[in-house]
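TL;DR need structure tokens for one chain.
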Amino acid sequence: MIARFTLDFDSIEEANIVTRALQPEIDHKIPKTKIITKTDNKQFFLTIESKDISSLRAACNSYLRWINTAINVRKTI
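>> reply
TL;DR here they are.
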């Protein structure tokens, strides 16, 4: 099972900030999932692969929350 997300940012810097913010979580690895991220210009791509739907759902919820947090922190600073 695969979930793919594409987020459009206002700048390349914002896309790179999200990528760097997620790196510790990607390195830590959520069990039963494979995470792939990529930035291309102002776009951020997130692909989550899992063998079962519950792991996929949990990973999607976690990564989308972490992305939202990174964006909100960036707006605050």
